[in-house]
Amino acid sequence: xxxxxxxxxxxxxxxxxxxxxxxxxxxxxxxxxxxxxxxxxxxxxxxxxxxxxxxxxxxxxxxxxxxxxxxx
Length: 72
Prior knowledge:
mainly alpha, 4 helices, 61% helix, 72 residues, single chain
């Protein structure tokens, strides 16, 4: 969410995307390894996040006028 706040003047997010980013933020850990009792995201949540990040990457490339094929 912090990163989204920094780029919101350049890339707009809809309510679903903001909600997903909020959910993603809950899984962020500061340490190298999660604790044993830490709940991990479901496979569906992981798929949703991967799809979102791909769309976000596309938005950023479009904003910067870059061809993502050159970066991948």
